[in-house]
Amino acid sequence: MQNVIVPLNAFDRVEVLEKGQTSFIKLIAGSGAFGIEIRRELFSEQDPPLESMKLEIEQNQLFTVYSAPIELWNANHQLNEQELTTIFEEGKKLGAKWVKVSLGHFSKEQSNVSHLHFFLKHHPEIQLFVENDQTLYGGNVSNLKLFFESASELNMPVKMTFDAGNWFYSKQEIVEALSQLSQYVQYLHLKQVDLENGELVTVPLQKNIGHSWEKVMNSLPSDLVKALEFPIQPKERTKEYIQMMTESEVLL
Q1: Nearest-CA neighbor of 124 among 79, 96, 161, 157?
Q2: Are 3 and 225 in contact (CB under 8 A)?
Q3: Angle CA(129)–CA(132)–CA(135) in degrees, nearest 5?
Q4: What's the predicted TM-score (pTM) here?
Q5: pLDDT tens digit string along 114-166?
Q6: In whole angstroms, what is the distance from residue 26 CA to residue 33 CA?
Q7: Partners of 7 in the beta sheet?
Q8: Residue 54: how many CB atoms within 10 A of its CB?
Q9: What per-residue string of b and e applies to 126-159 under the rule 16 or more CB within 10 Å gives b?
Q10: φ, ψ for residue 131 (rounded to 5)?
């Protein structure tokens, strides 16, 4: 099944900022990807208006995910409604079907989940995804579970992006994360994080050497949409990594 997304942060940051995210669209489409993940933090003067990006993405028949580095719940545990509204408006102009943010400071006792439910009811054209980030609060298994349980109680249309590598940064156990959160996952960010010289480093995927990303992928449904969120260098190897994902699905 063709279900691989390529995020723009997989490529050299300097090159993306210098050339613009739009310049990578044809490469991603030509590599056999299902879609593209546009990154808000990587917009530069080289990128055209969002409506123009939308047209080029559509011409290359790519599914669009819009990722924004905002926290759903602010430090006071309240909904970041103003920022969320802006992100959804930008996502709509971009033609994104999915918008991805991080959890932020969710509190079971203080966060008004009904407020988010009301917001999403007025934006049915976009699916909200919440990702485990690298912070100790937004990447916390317990916090994420409490949020998704609260959302499920209201039958709220919100899904999880499971980042296979971020658990290392937030000091959480991957097996526990899979056990507690797998039922909410519909989007998988694949990266491998290794310890090099005492520091956590995201490295390219390699098959059949016992890396944690393979364990994660094998624990979740094979038809999940997957993103390649690791350094792809040179960028021409994108096709090779997409084929690796396709072959892995066949083996499952």
Answers
A1: 157
A2: yes
A3: 135
A4: 0.95
A5: 999 999 999 999 999 999 999 999 999 999 999 999 999 999 999 999 999 99
A6: 10
A7: 37
A8: 18
A9: bbbbbbbbbbebbbbbebbbbbbebbeeeebebb
A10: -110, 150
